[in-house]
Structure formats: C-alpha cells, structure tokens
Amino acid sequence: MLFAFAAVALLLALIGIYGVMVQAVVQRKVEIGIRMALGAAPLRVVALMVRQALLPALAGMTVGLAAAAATVPLLSIWLFGVGPFDRMTWVTVAVLALAVCALASYVPAWRAGRIDPNAVLRAE
Questions:
Q1: Contacts of residue 43, Cβ cutoff 8 Å, sequence gap at least 6
Q2: ∠ Cα 51 92 4 (to 5°)
Q3: Which residue from 46, 57, 63, 84 has the fewest beta carbons nearer than 10 Å?
C-alpha cells in the first residue's frame, strides 16, 4: 500500500513539473519568435529552451536530494524492506524527474520553433 501511495505521489509531482515547465516555455513564445526572426536556427532555439529549463531543475534536484538525505535518519524508522539510502530508488526518481523536465520543455519549444515568426510577432 505504501508503494501505491508513493507511486501516486510521484505521478502527481511529475504532472506538476510538466505543467510548470510547459507554462514557462509557452510564456517565452514571443522570445522564440524574435530569435527566429533574427535568424536563429529552430534547433538551436529548442536546445536553448531545454537547457534553460533544465538548469533550475538540476538546482532543485540538488537541493531536494540534499534535503532528503538530511531527513533520512528521521524517516528511516518507517522504511520496511528497503534501506534508507537505496541508490536505485534515488537514481530512478532523479532521472525520471529530469526526463520529465526535459520532455516538458522540449515539446512546447519544438512546437514554437516550427511556427512562423511573423505570426507570433503579429499576435503580440
């Protein structure tokens, strides 16, 4: 039962991360249009958006893992069948969260990179 609740919590966290990342990239659609109007290649714009979205995600991951490591001694009494520093669990969650961040920033940036810069600039 604990595994089911942990899986649901992880799923909700990943959905939240996806929503925040999509919103952050969509808000920069005008910037993407300006960059493309000035001659930037769509692939470079997409790479820039993904890189700028992953930097805060990596910083948050670092702080989160440090906080989790600090609270492990307090929470270890409730762990059954798994050690407090189970590397596989920690790595899986970190990689999954970073993959969702990368995908969540790549998809809208890729869509924005395919549209006509004139249409984006006219809309604003």
A1: 113
A2: 125
A3: 63
Q: What is the pTM of this model?
A: 0.71
- Tell me the two tokens of residue 119: 């249409």
Residues in the chain: 124
Helix, strand, or coil (residue 85):
coil
What are the start-end ranges of the H helices in the chain?
A: 2-26, 29-37, 42-75, 87-114, 117-123
Mind listing the pLDDT tens digit of every residue in the chain (124 residues)?
Answer: 878 998 898 889 888 888 887 888 778 888 888 888 888 888 888 888 888 888 988 999 899 889 988 888 887 777 776 677 778 888 888 888 888 888 888 888 888 778 788 887 787 6
